[in-house]
Each structure stands twice: as structure tokens, then as C-alpha cells.
From TrEMBL, chains A, C:
GO terms for biological process: phenylacetate catabolic process. Signal peptide: none annotated. It comes from the Bacteria. InterPro entries: Aromatic_CoA_ox/epox, Ferritin-like, Ferritin-like_SF, PaaA_PaaC, PaaC. NCBIfam families: PA_CoA_Oxy3. GO terms for cellular component: cytosol. This is 1,2-phenylacetyl-CoA epoxidase, subunit C. It holds the Pfam family PaaA_PaaC.
């Protein structure tokens, strides 16, 4: 794999994660448990969509094929997406949405922090802009995981169920593959596996406060970030997300 | 009665009434109804636009729409806050919305069927809302007037964004143009209804105007809206769906057809196209979220107890 | 409105009703309360899709613009659909699905029976083929409405709620408009309003057996069969239904 | 032991065992497990294809797919019926499926991600299933053998339909061709896994073969499947995702790579891509449908009572 292809893949991974998670979070619009959460969820979605514009914009630039960030978002089919399986998972109840968010945020801060040192200044720049938002996100999602985990019996049960369900999708974020190896070698991005120990420590601390038990099984589903085998959920999301662009090709909006 | 006269004198003098001031029960009740209904409208108003967030055509449009809906939730917060100063809690008001005791603006009982509706809602619905709200910045109740100042600023931003969508659609492909016209066709009369029936048919108007809770008559505002909007439609190259529309030199404004008030009262009664869907959606959100609200409260209590115990 | 346009509109109404309801019913695939219902629902959906092919096929022929039944189904946006609001309503629980089906079936048998006498032999032919299926459908849906209405307290409550919810969408099926007037004048189709008395009698008999109370309010939502104002639900359905044709224009499947 | 020997003799003579005949407990248990698992596979197997019914590209394709999934439900009915003759009810078996005590074919734990998967499932998955099932038409247990006769006829029809989709895709636009190859890439090894691990690693095989519950070894069937399928892939112009694939003149069949058996056991343990989703979907259907089943029973009882009362 040449450097350009690897960089394009890497940038799509970053941008597709924020795109897909941003979309999922935006599905909550008007349906949150309290008004403050409606606002907070919209805020997270907004940040993620903004980051998507930067990552996919750079991806399109690196590709050099005349595509735009919107083209990448709106005109690729499911197999060309590089989002991790975690972010594709459906919202479920508010607890599941939050747990997904927390696990993502904790990884996200770690990777963005490392990317601020990227040898590619464009990557470093996007990371620097994004990391502030991500830090705020993880602060909020960790806090809520703790409060709901250590809330009522029902909320505890729901949060533990959410953790159990989502845990098998966490490992993929730390998988290394040839794209990651190429990025690491070029100094553009860290090896994902190298982030795990620190992130695990953070997660352990939060779950302890939340009185939640991290599953012992380290089994991890794979296939999202490589695009080899997404979940069935992603395709359904794309039918919505891409509808207008597909139905009215060539229009300006 | 002396108190009442003094109160009216303060209002006539342009003073603001503040929450701890004495006020007539009718003033309080009318305000609670009006501010509450306005707050509920912001909340329910998230739904028709939320309906298109997942289908927004570009990342930028998605972001703009998300930000707009977020603003609406924010307006809801300000307004509930203003109403709470009158002694009614947000949860109480929410319960009254959910079981139908309190209303929200009927316009949100109309469906959003194409992307052009995001333009039409911004342009016409926010346009009409601003027309209603700008004078309320001078309303007699302080917290309400101050909330309105913040809200109006954002609403006029939203209206411009809506108009921008309409411009893109009206100047786009034939299909987009058709979409834009279709949206105007569906939203024109419902937008006119937003000002309420003619004041001659309105019960509470005179008292509300004396109290400066209501600043203009419904018909005045509707006329103003039509006069402002028709040239915009012309600019867009779209046709207002009213054969009787004509410039009246004498009155310096347009003559236009009244909306179908039978439809208005039908929608008010609960028979609008989306009344059931909207209330179902809000009720579901509230019921599904109960465990979260309970848990946050339980956690806060535990936490407080632990701190006390640790002292 | 000229005769050709009116006929095209009328045929789209017939075909869009079966298309949209067939789609809704097909959403149940693999999720029915008992295996026999999985089979029965698939059967109903199949019949409706088959009828759609005939109605929209004829509509395309009448239009004479080179479109096919598939083009009409897969490439029109929501405003060009002529389905009644009733069939666009979401599935809800099994009771709601069944109640929607029963109300539709009872109307469907009436209209198809009348259409067998159509002055247009192509219409009469499709009606004759379809009516056998529709009779079977109404037999089944009426039977289930009765059994669930007069079942347990819970089932009774659910069926009554379904009837209350769907009743305001029933009246539209019997609305007359200029298209209907043109069809009636040409002897192609009956005036919808003329079907109501008989259908009401049937419905009253079934609901009595089901121990369900028909709402007194005759208010009816409008806007589906004319296409003026569909429900928000239809657009979401189309994002799925039309996805592949929109995403891969010009492909053969 | 005399009974056992007589039983074995009947089987060896090619006689069919019928439900009321004496049979060893192990025979009954193995059959219940096998037929039940097969029935469950038909039921769960509705889901991956059901996933595309709402997105089928043409009315005809939608109808064909619906009919196919309907057939699968029908197969489920026959098979539950056959298992019930062994003294276990459909509801009991369903409960065992839902709480994980009974399995279904692991292949249905793989997702269907593009329309080409509808082709690949028909071509490869139904193809492998038929390979397994054709010999079972001669199985020793009468009701099972008879169910298999009906099922095999429909399955081979399904397989042809799947191949037809693949032909359309492989001969279509570049994107369709890519979709077809992608589907083959994802389904090839999971299809090979459908025959189970090599018989040397399989515990129950010898006894099952003696009882004619199992008619061929897993490896025999897998070889047969590969030999049949590779030329079809070539005909389609698609590449089987196995670099080691080569014709072996000596054995008169292909040499091919083993699937990743670690993955197979992972999926069996519940860690397949869709195990959780599939069981959730089935559990939800069952739970959501409880009120319907209860009501149908209650109605039948009332009705029966009324008839008795009326006599």
C-alpha cells in the first residue's frame, strides 16, 4: 500500500467515525430524557459533524480525485465506509447511547492527543482543533456514565447491560493493521494498540466510580475500520443520510 | 382595585413588572399560559425539523439544521425559566403539554415532507414567529421581555437561513424549484394562521393588550407579514398560492385571502395532520426518559448524603 | 383534467395503495407473533406487490411516457405518490397492523368488486384477478380483528386503541374529487362515496363481533390520495424502498 | 440390547422409523436436536434476507425475496411438525432457541450488507444447505425424511434464484460486479463452515451415521460443494477468495483452504457478527407477540365455552 492510499484510508477512518457517530447522536433530536440533554446531544453531534468536514475534507484533498467531503459522506456505499463497528451500533436507550459515546470519547481523546504531534501538520492541526471538543465530550459522558451507573437499581442495570453489549465493539478501535503501520512509520499517526493501556486505565477508573463491571472477555468484533464487514445497521443509516444526494444527483443545496 | 389601578399605571408608564412584584391573578395566569405555550412550541417545534436532520443533503446543511434545532431547545429553556418565575415548574408545564391541557403552536402539527420544507419553515414559520415576537421584547413582564430579546436575535438568523435554503432551491434544478413551490403552497396558509383569528373573534385580546402582554392585533401582524413576504416570494420567483392576492394602493398593503379558519379550529381541536404523532413523540421521549431523570436525582441524593456523612 | 391524466392518477392511486401497504406489511418479515402469521403476512404482502405490478404497469402504459411500473415505484418522490394516508401509517403493534389491514381490505373488496364492471376492460381484468385475493384478505383480517378484539382485556384495549388511532384515516378512502368524477363519468370506476354505506355496514358488523366501539367522530384526514399532503412517514419509507435504484441509477437487477 | 439390535437391523434394511415405533433415547434426542436446530435455522434465516426485503431493487425482486422468506417460514413449520412427533412442542423448542439452549446454523450470524448478498445467500448458503439436505431425504426417521423431500424441492428453486441474482450482478455495471465479488469474498468461507468441522473432530458423527440421521461425512459434502461451486464462480467471472484453490487431477476434485475454524467456534460461542442482533430480534418478536398468542387462546376458550353453553 502506498503512502497516499494509506493516508486516505486513515483519514476516512477518522472522518467516518465522527460522521457515523454524529449521525447516530443527531437521531436523538427532540427525544432526549431532559431538555438539557437535547441541547447537549445536539452539541456533541454538531462538534462531530464539524470534525467530519475537516477529516473528510483532508481525505478528499489527499486523494486528489476531485471529490469533496460531501461526496465522500453522501456518495459512498457501505463497503467504502471505514467507521468502526462501535459507532454504527443503534442508539438503543439513552444509557446505550451514552455508553457508546463514553467509550468512543475516551479513545478519541487519546488518539487526538497523540495526533497533535503528527508529522503531517494538517493532521496535527485538525487534531488540535478537535481535541478540545473531545475533552469536553469525555468529561460529560464519563460524568453521566458514573451518575447513571451509580443511580437507581434500574439505571445501574441498564448501564451494565449497555456496557456488556458494547464492550465487544471497543477492541476494534485499538487494532493495528497495515494502514496503521504505514501511518506509524511515517509519523502521521500512532499505532492504535499503543493507546490501549492508558485508555483502559481511564475506563477502569470511570467504571469503578460507576459501580459497573467491565466484562472479562476480551473478544472484539472486527470489520468496520477495514470496511471488510460492517454491521447491517450502517446500510440502513445510509439510506437516510444519503437520500437527497442520491435522489437528486447534481443538485446544489 | 387600588392595587389594580397602580399596577395598570406602572404598565402604562412603561415600567417592567418583575416576579416579586404584586400582580393580578389574571395577569399571572395569562402570562403562564402564553409563555408556557410559547415554550412548548419551541420544544414540539424541534420535531418537524428534526425529521430532516438525518436526511440533510450536505454536512454543512446538517450542521446548520442541528444548530437551529438546538437553539429551539435553548429558547424552550429560557421560556420555561421565565414562566417558572411566575410559580409554575417546568415539570408541571411539561405534564400539562403531554396530557393536552396546554397547547403549542398549531403550525407544528403540519408535516415536513421535502427538504424545501426546511426552507419554508425557516422563511415563513420563523418569519411569522418573529413578527409576533419582536413587539414582545417590549412586553410588560421583565423576564419574558428579556427572554424575547435573546430569542429574537437568533430567530432572525434562522429566518435568513431558511430564506437561503429557499434561494438555493428556487434557483436550482427544475425538481428543486418544484419542491420550493410545493413547500410554499403547503405552508402559506398555515403561516397566516399563526397570527390567530381576527381580533374581533378573540376573547382575551383587549385585556392582554392593556396589560402589554399582547402588543399588536392579530390582523395588524398578519398584514405586516404578508406585506413583507410577498415581495420575497416574487424575488424567489415563486407564486403565493392565493389568486386574490393584489396590491392595494389605498391601504398601502396587499389584499389577500383569509386562511381556512375551519381547518385552524380543527387543528386546534387535535385534528391536525400531525397532532397525534407530535404528542406521541413527546410522550414517548418523556416516558422513556423517566429512568434517567430518576437516576440523576437518586445519584445526587446519594452524593449529598455521602458528603454529609463525610463531614 | 383530460381523461388520460385522470386515468393515470386513478391507476396510481390503486397501485400506490397496494405498493405502500405491501411494503409496510413486508416490514414484519421474521417478526410476527406466531410462525403462521409470518407466513400469512408475507402472503398478503406478496399479493399486494403483485397487484401493484398490474396497476402501475397499466398506469405506465396509459401515461405512454416510456416509464415502467418499477420506474413509478422506485423513482417518484413522495409528492408524486397517490397512496391514501391510511396505508402509510406505521405498523405499530400487531393489532395496529391488523386493524389497518382490515379497514383497507373492507374498502378494497368493495372497490375491486365495482371495478370488475369497469368500462375499461384492462381495469376490469386487474380487478377480477385482485378481488379473489382481497376477499381472502378481508376474511382473514376480519377474523383476527374479531378474535383479538374479543380476546383478553389487553388485546381488547390494544385493538380499540388501534381502531381509534386509524379511524380518522378511513374516511379519505371514500372521498370524491375531480379524478373520481372523471372516472365515474367515463364508467371506469365508481364514485368512492357510493361505496361507503355498504362498507360501513360490514365494518359495523365486524366491530360488533369484536366488541369494539367505532368512534363517533367522522373527521377524516386528507391529502394522501391527492398527493397534496402525505404523512411524514411516507418519505422515510421511500428512503428504504428506493435506495438501490437511486444509488445505482441505470443498473439492471 | 435385543431391541437395540432389532432397531439397528430395521435401519440397515432401509426401513423408515415412524413416531409410534420404539426408538432408543439417544436416537430420539439426537433427532430432536438436529431437526430442532434445522427448524430454528429456517426461522432465524428469515432475518438476514428479511433485512433486504424493504430495499429490494424492483417489484419482481421484492416479490421473489418475499416468497423465498415465506418458504423458509413454511420449512420451519414442517420441521417443527416433524420434531413434535418426537414429543417436544414447538413452544418448548422456541423457548430453547430464545434462551440459547438450542442452536441455529451459524451462517445466519453473518450480516447481509449489499443486495449481492441476496444472490450469495441463495447461491452459496442455500447451495450448501441443499448439499446437506438432499441425502437427508433418505434419513431413517420417516417424518424428517418426508419433510426433507418437500424442502429440497423448494431450496433448489431458491438456489437457482440466488444464482440468477449473481448473474445479473456479475454481468451488470462495474459497481454491481464489485458488489458481487465482495459478497462472494464474505460468504465463501462461512459457506464452507456450514458442513461443520472435519469429522475426525466431530463427536457424534459415527453413531449418527449408523442411525442414518447423518448420511455423509462433513468433509465429503464440503468437497462436493467446492467441486460444484468453483465452476459456477468461474462462469460468473468471479474469483473465489482462496489463493490455494487448485484442481487436483488425482483425486478428481479441488484442493482448497480450510476455513478459519477458530472463527467458527467463536461464532458458535455467540461471538459472530450478528448473534446478538439475531437473538434480540427473535426474542423481541416473541415477547411483543405474547399478547396476541394469549388473546387467540382466550378467544378460542371463550368460544368453546359459549358453544358448550349453547348446546
Amino acid at each position: 500500500m502506498d503512502q497516499q492510499t494509506a493516508t486516505f484510508e486513515f483519514l476516512c477512518r477518522m472522518g467516518d467515525n465522527t460522521l457515523v457517530l454524529g449521525h447516530r447522536v443527531s437521531e436523538w433530536c427532540g427525544k432526549a430524557p431532559v431538555l438539557e440533554e437535547d441541547i447537549a446531544l445536539a452539541n456533541v453531534a454538531l462538534d462531530l459533524i464539524g470534525q467530519t468536514q475537516m477529516w473528510l475534507g483532508l481525505a478528499a484533498e489527499v486523494e486528489g480525485a476531485g471529490r469533496t467531503a460531501d461526496d465522500l459522506a453522501m456518495l459512498r456505499d457501505v463497503w467504502d465506509f471505514r467507521s468502526a463497528l462501535l459507532v454504527e451500533q443503534p442508539n438503543g436507550d439513552f444509557g446505550q447511547t451514552l455508553m457508546r459515546q463514553y467509550l468512543f470519547d475516551q479513545w478519541h481523546v487519546a488518539v487526538l492527543t497523540a495526533l497533535m504531534e503528527s508529522a503531517d501538520p494538517r493532521v496535527a492541526d485538525i487534531a488540535a482543533k478537535s481535541v478540545k471538543e473531545a475533552r469536553y465530550h469525555v468529561e460529560r459522558s464519563a460524568d453521566l456514565v458514573i451518575r447513571l451507573g451509580d443511580g437507581t437499581e434500574e439505571s445501574h442495570g441498564r448501564m451494565q447491560a449497555a456496557l456488556d453489549k458494547l464492550w465487544p465493539f471497543f477492541g476494534e478501535l485499538f487494532d493495528d493493521d497495515p494502514v496503521d503501520a504505514a501511518m506509524a512509520e511515517a509519523g502521521i499517526a500512532p499505532l492504535p494498540s499503543g493507546l490501549r493501556a492508558d485508555v483502559d486505565q481511564e475506563v477502569a477508573a470511570v467504571m469503578a466510580q460507576a459501580t459497573l463491571v467491565i466484562p472479562a472477555d476480551r473478544f472484539a468484533h472486527r470489520g468496520g475500520k477495514t470496511g471488510i464487514r460492517h454491521s447491517e445497521h450502517l446500510g440502513h443509516m445510509l439510506t437516510q443520510m444519503q437520500w437527497l444526494q442520491r435522489a437528486y444527483p447534481g443538485a446544489t443545496w | 382595585p387600588a392595587k389594580l389601578a397602580a399596577f395598570q399605571a406602572r404598565i402604562d408608564a412603561g415600567e417592567k413588572v418583575e416576579p416579586k412584584d404584586w400582580m393580578p391573578e389574571g395577569y399571572r395566569k395569562t402570562l403562564i399560559r402564553q409563555i408556557g405555550q410559547h415554550a412548548h412550541s419551541e420544544i414540539v417545534g424541534q420535531l418537524p425539523e428534526g425529521n430532516w436532520i438525518t436526511r440533510a443533503p450536505t454536512l454543512e446543511r446538517k450542521a446548520i439544521l442541528l444548530a437551529k434545532v438546538q437553539d429551539e431547545a435553548g429558547h424552550g429553556l429560557y421560556l420555561y425559566g421565565a414562566a417558572e418565575t411566575l410559580g409554575v415548574s417546568r415539570d408541571e408545564m411539561t405534564e400539562m403539554l403531554l396530557d393536552g391541557r396546554m397547547k403549542y403552536s398549531s403550525i407544528f402539527n403540519y408535516p415536513t415532507l421535502t427538504w424545501a420544507d426546511m426552507g419554508a419553515v425557516g422563511w415563513l414559520v420563523d418569519g411569522a414567529a418573529i413578527m409576533n415576537q419582536v413587539p414582545l421584547q417590549r412586553t410588560s413582564f421583565g423576564p419574558y421581555a428579556r427572554a424575547m430579546v435573546r430569542i429574537c436575535k437568533e430567530e432572525s438568523f434562522h429566518q435568513r437561513q431558511g430564506f437561503d435554503i429557499m434561494m438555493k432551491m428556487a434557483g436550482g434544478t427544475p425538481a428543486q424549484r418544484r419542491m420550493a413551490q410545493n413547500a410554499l403552497d403547503r405552508f402559506w396558509f398555515p403561516a397566516l394562521m399563526m397570527f390567530g383569528p381576527s381580533d374581533k373573534d378573540s376573547v382575551h385580546s383587549a385585556q392582554s393588550m392593556a396589560w402589554k402582554i399582547k402588543m399588536n392585533t392579530n390582523d395588524e401582524l398578519r398584514q405586516k407579514f404578508v406585506d413583507q413576504t410577498v415581495p420575497q416570494a416574487e424575488y424567489l420567483g415563486l407564486t403565493v398560492p392565493d389568486d386574490t392576492l393584489a396590491w392595494n394602493e389605498a391601504k398601502g398593503g396587499y389584499d389577500f385571502a383569509e386562511p381556512d379558519w375551519a381547518e385552524f379550529f380543527d387543528v386546534l381541536k387535535g385534528n391536525g395532520p400531525c397532532n397525534v404523532d407530535r404528542l406521541e413523540a413527546r410522550n414517548k421521549a418523556w416516558d422513556d426518559g423517566a429512568w434517567v431523570r430518576d437516576a440523576l436525582m437518586a445519584h445526587a441524593e446519594k452524593h449529598a448524603n455521602r458528603e454529609v456523612a463525610a463531614e
